[in-house]
Amino acid sequence: MSQLVHRPCHLCEASCGLTFEVEGERILAARNDPQDPFSRGYCCPKGLAIPAHFHDPDRLRRPLVRRGGELVECGWEEALEAAAEGLAGVLRRRGRHALATYIGNPTVHNLGAMLGTEVWRRALPSRNRYTANSQDVNPHLLVNLLVFGMQLAQPVPDLERTSYLLIVGANPLVSNGSLMTAPGIGRRLKAIQARGGKLVVLDPRRTETARLACEHHFVWPGQDALLLLALAQVILAEGLEDAAFLARWGRPGVRQRLRDLLEPFTPEAAAPRVGPAFTPAHLRRLARELAQAEGAAVYARLGPCNSAQGGLAVWATLLLNALTGNLDRVGGSLFPEGLASWLFRLP
User: Fold this and answer.
1) Measured in Å, how far apart are the chain's first and last C-alpha atoms?
2) SS3 category, 302
């Protein structure tokens, strides 16, 4: 007799709720779970295809070992012995840094697999450690480490309460809200507009998210950092920054230091270089809207991260969230609640 079980999907960080119909070792069907409080009935085709993937006739169900130039099935004991022998040989000949590890989806979204791989990596330490983050998130991890002291201290937009969302080089309608862990992101973005908020996209391409936005502005590839620094320059030059926030969390003299640092990045200097239709007045309007909104968030993803100035663009994103007093504030960019959130949450 079949039964229903409820599980989160581990294929991406959205972790949508799924309902599986199972009978013994077989998955008969996978459906979206309307009762899941997080995804609220949303799921993408990947989750619904889990039964087909699980029962794919070409799926490997036993280890393979190479014999005489061909891969043949073997038992687990033989496979593990062969793997250990190969690793030991590399260590003896080349040292530990000749080894490399790569961890991606769905491993990083499964707590048991994550803990197991970390134990393995600590037993065989190597500087060559790669993950899905290596593809497009390293600027975020580096800036988080330098600014907050922890790579995983990643603030994310408070989608449920923000009134102004500035999306830079990201297409969350396709990525399921990468880094935001926000299943059903389309519904959440439309809700911002429905409650009178504004959604602005800066992107060289008219993406699916750009078509949904209140405004879409074309930006030349690689110029995100310059544009964001110009917005920060306007906010400081016009006294629109949250002085109380900077006084509480910034070092002494931080406002003047930032003004001096950003002085060259005026709208007049930036506008001709950031996009085909930008003017100084245009940049000033965007900066004022961002600073004066009741709860605003700046969110940057794949585009800026894969540019030559990726680290600077991500830092400029955090700078704008801080200058406007929206870092770890309701309606702004919040540090998610989690196991280690007490390490970096602003009181």
Assistant:
1) 52
2) helix
d(CA 260, CA 254): 10
Q: Domain holding 15: CATH number?
A: 2.20.25.90
Mean pLDDT of the 195-208 span: 97
Q: Which residues contact 158 (CB under 8 A, 6 or more apart)?
A: 295, 297, 330, 331, 332, 333, 334
Tokens of 303: 């585009």
Q: Rounded CA gap, 114 and 126, in Å?
A: 17
| Residue 8: how many other CB atoms lie within 10 Å | 18
Note whether 96 and 43 are same-domain residues.
Answer: no
Domain count, the chain: 3
pTM listed for this prediction: 0.88
State how far the alpha carbon of 290 is from the alpha carbons of 164, 219, 242, 301, in Å.
7, 18, 12, 18
- pLDDT tens, position by position, 132-181: 888 888 999 999 999 998 888 899 999 999 999 999 999 999 988 888 88
Flag whether pLDDT at 289 surpasses 70.
yes
Q: Provide the residue range defining the domain that includes 269.
A: 138-343
| Sign of the Cα pseudo-torsion (236, 240, 246, 247, in order) | positive
**H or E element: which one contains 317?**
helix 310-323
Provide the β-strand partners of residue 333: 157, 327
Q: Mean pLDDT lowest for which of 86-90, 109-113, 166-170, 301-305? A: 109-113
Q: pLDDT by residue (tens digit) across 247-274? A: 999 889 999 999 999 999 999 999 999 9
Q: Cβ-count burial of 340 within 10 angstroms (0-12 exposed, 13-18 middle, 19+ buried)?
A: exposed
Helix (H) or strand (E) holding 237: helix 224-237
